Amino acid sequence: MQILDVDLGERSYPILIGEQLLDRGELLAPHIRGKQVAIVTNETVAPLYLERLMQSLGGYSVTPVVLPDGEAWKNWETLQLIFDGLLSARHDRKTTIIALGGGVIGDMAGFAAASYQRGVDFIQIPTTLLSQVDSSVGGKTGINHPLGKNMIGAFYQPQLVLIDTSTLATLPARELSAGLAEVIKYGLICDEPFLGWLEDNIDRLRELDQVALTEAIRRSCAAKAAVVGADERESGVRATLNLGHTFGHAIETHQGYGVWLHGEAVAAGTVMALEMSRRLGWISAAERDRGVRLLARAGLPVVPPTDMTPEDFMQHMAVDKKVLDGQLRLVLLKQLGEAVVTGDFPREVLDATLRVDYDLLMQQSRA
Amino acid sequence: MQILDVDLGERSYPILIGEQLLDRGELLAPHIRGKQVAIVTNETVAPLYLERLMQSLGGYSVTPVVLPDGEAWKNWETLQLIFDGLLSARHDRKTTIIALGGGVIGDMAGFAAASYQRGVDFIQIPTTLLSQVDSSVGGKTGINHPLGKNMIGAFYQPQLVLIDTSTLATLPARELSAGLAEVIKYGLICDEPFLGWLEDNIDRLRELDQVALTEAIRRSCAAKAAVVGADERESGVRATLNLGHTFGHAIETHQGYGVWLHGEAVAAGTVMALEMSRRLGWISAAERDRGVRLLARAGLPVVPPTDMTPEDFMQHMAVDKKVLDGQLRLVLLKQLGEAVVTGDFPREVLDATLRVDYDLLMQQSRA
Q: Which of its termini does chain B have fewer beta carbons within 10 Å around, N or C?
């Protein structure tokens, strides 16, 4: 088992990473203050892991809350089911909410923890690669609004993140790839050597090699923990974690939540950010193609939806959280391994980026 | 104009108290970061003060959000109207949400500010006596749930509280009395001399004497600011501010939100807390009667609803936020001017308190 510490002063917490941690109640106990625990999970994860986790929590009064599965349910109505469960079972302010599942479960359980009786304790047990390397670290919680993704939420830190790498055995291949989009992102924005490591190990990761997965998760969490530790409330460098996300959110919103997986939209969005960085003269075509090829080898889409026009993109991007005082800011690459957040680019370069034939670009990147 | 500072480290903020402050945009400007402002108010307050406030904010892009009036609307559906307004007008993360109205508006606008894009700036302009002396100070925000009051929310501090005492001229007498319940509370829990001052000035307050009102608001805010400053997240002494609230919330929940005003329920609940403190031998019958008489002179109900049984009270109090590990804790008086939060009382004394004939008690207190 590996332990990482996320340093946020009085809101610091550990991340435990290892195999079969789900059965080890002694890892959870030091982080549970009261006698009540609510486990928030979904219909897909519950049959696989809920019983095991409840066995690990034998000494507690446990309320399971099983939600429908999917980003399409990341809304107020579903969040309300968590509050209904907590209130029906009379959970008090010392209760602990455990998120058992992927990013959607973590985001909703975390926002429920932030809001229930104005804040109760929270533990993350992410069971997808995406949530293990991304959404379980950094304290972002929330739900979607019909007019925008993640528009309602809170910054709220967990007491503990427990990553059981064995749970990836039951993850569909498509979701594993979606998680790899975020793993590759860390290489692109702040760790060029890790990018090289990924080029050597991408096939092993897709084959669920446990050693390679553990290493990829550890390096990803460490990268994110370092960035978040430096900038908890996303006033500066933290925003670089959103490489590909502004374009990606536009794709998700336009297609309807849940049609593209988050990581898939981020992958296509990352290709657009790479292309825009090349057009600004910050990276070479060869460097752009390294990123595109690695994303493609991870089993990810590298072409945005062909039915999306530049106008569609602009409309959705105008409500993105990185818009400040009406100016659109994007995460772009100064070089491989170094991202910046900037609104300082000619509008024409963005327009041109939105008009690129990405099918052709993908084919050329393979040449 | 008087200025009070609420000392919460990096979340400190000033409270400005005075006449006709609504027209003084220069008091607001230093606390607004961006160019966008949303004013959240309700159908009762908007015709009275919205236009004047918008004039004070001439240099900003202002989005008014006018909600229906009343505690019955303090729910998710109404909160959603704020998010709809913010997103439709494309408010970004540097926007400022201003609450213009009473406690319900402050609680909802505050929770919207805490949750919109995971947190934006917030200014309180409370227009009722209750919200001026209570809910605008301390950072509590939230909405009700069908199973409990204020169950969903956040601790979230404003940038500024602006109290324009002139707005009390349009407040119905019944709501003025409801505010006085909280003013009297400060005397009971932590300021015995203030209790004496109130006994001398209660009639002037009900007649809207501006000098008396300003003094009562200043002393109330100072008392609350001191308590909140010592215990922002209600782990200890802050809970004494809830004198009468556990019984009072039970009354509000049982009667249906909005039937009794919050301050009215708190007044009757305070009488119950006084009576229970007397039964524990902590205060005398004469001291209890001083409290009961002052509440009655303020125009407040001092008798709980006659259709509520002891069982009704116990059922509603079991989900109160002051329940920890199944033990009910109450705010009681060790003496006039000194409150404690305790679960250390014989259950029979609580049962007896719930069975008291409060009509009779009220009549005797006048003797």
A: C
